[in-house]
Amino acid sequence: MAVAVRGNRGASNFGAFNLRSFFSYRIFISALFSLLFIATLSVIFTTNPTTPHHDSALPTTGNAYVRRTFLTLNSDPLKTRLDLIYKQASDHITLVNAYAAYARKLKLEMSKQLKMFDDLAQNFSDIQMKPNYRETLFGSTGPLDEDVLRQFEKEVKDRVKTARMMIVESKENYDNQLKIQKLKDTIFAVNELLVKAKKNGAFASSIAARSIPKSLHCLSMRLVEEKISHPEKYTDDEPKAEFEDPSLYHYAIFSDNIIAVSVVVRSVVKNAEEPWKHVFHIVTDRMNLAAMKVWFKMRPVERGSHIEIKAVGDFTFLNSSYVPLLRQHESVNSQKPSSDNTIKFKNPKDTSLLNHLRFYLPEMFPKLWKIVFLEDDVVVQKDLTGLWRIDLDGKVNGAVETCFGSFHRFTHYLNFSNPLIKEKFNPKACAWSYGINIFDLDGWRSEKCTEEYNYWQNLNEDGSLWSGGTLPPGLVIFYSKTKSLDRSWHVLGLGYNPSISMDAINNAAVIHYNGNMKPWLDIAMNQYKGLWTKYVDSDMEFVQVCNFGL
Q1: What's the pTM?
Q2: Which residues span the membrane (predicted)?
């Protein structure tokens, strides 16, 4: 029993000891935190800054965050606002000075922009130096005047806005990447405009070239009116023997343009050494036949030259049963319009029979041996009789080649993806040009070139061999049958190329206004127009009346 009592007493003593230890620990912890709090307050109050608020810099010691927090809670809100305004102004002064320094580095000292930067930086500095602001805001240790601070803020923001606008406007002058990108954007935009302008110009030029000018229409009407008024003056003459004399110099001109034909004939005659030996065979359409005849009745060919004028319909063998082109026209015209039926022929001139008569020369002039074919947009500057003395070496066609480098090769005119073209022709073969050509009609007949033309024209009914015109079929039928002539015989490009050498033009026997800018149109190039207009019969009364603008 005694043992048990002693044990219980010991247990109670142990519990009392634990309770006393717990309370002692709590007292120790409380005292420790109190000491730390007192030490912190003493550090804060003993390190209070004495420098002006706008020039001070917070220390970077370990108590910086605590001090900043305490100052924020106890400082004047207006002073905090003043600090923010002052810092914003300082940042923009630094930025403006940086751009000004870069401008000096780029040797832009004399530029208006550099002066603006310097003035702006000075304006920022001058604001805080104003007596009102210096005394009230920066020199005072007491409370700040809110009205003065608001006025100061307004002036600073105005200058900040000006600085930002100047920097945005000037940034592209200093940022190389921005300048490069802007230049690329400008080049792209200008190129887009250039492409669009070229397309519009080409379209307008094409329309102008294919349209009948008012002056030409006027001339035709006046000539027809003249025939109706005086029919006795314009009766047809009997054919001359010279028209079939193979010993003379014969020219073929196929056109519906009266003034153009007149210029070609006059230029040949004026430069011929023996004009009475020259014979001109003019073929036009039925609509312009009367006007063409009246013109040459009123203005006869000079110096004894001879001229024959006919219509396409006068050659009775030219019918749809013999000429593939006519048959193709009839086929297209007979088809009903539908979504699947597309008109293959876009330019009427490319598929007009008048333009394709050149492929039937031997049958049109069966008694002639040689003939010179002239386009209606050429001007002859020298005597052409030398063409008849050229040895064609058994070839049928004498023409000036137009290729240089990779340009004007067969591949540009024919569709070499078609097996028929690919098997027969060399894509790198040199092309030549119409304008002035000397044809050996006897050789043409023996080579059966007209039959070959009809064969290929039938194959090209769907336009799969070439797109149109007369040059591609000419290249086909006269392939390996063309004699290259000296380039001085024929200078091309006066209807589209403004950079042709005047020496080349002056030395040429024939100049050719191929292209859309024909010399009788308003869009003609002025530097070449005078070479054509000097052969226009400007004394002809109808030329003056119809206002050709010569």
Answers
A1: 0.66
A2: 27-45
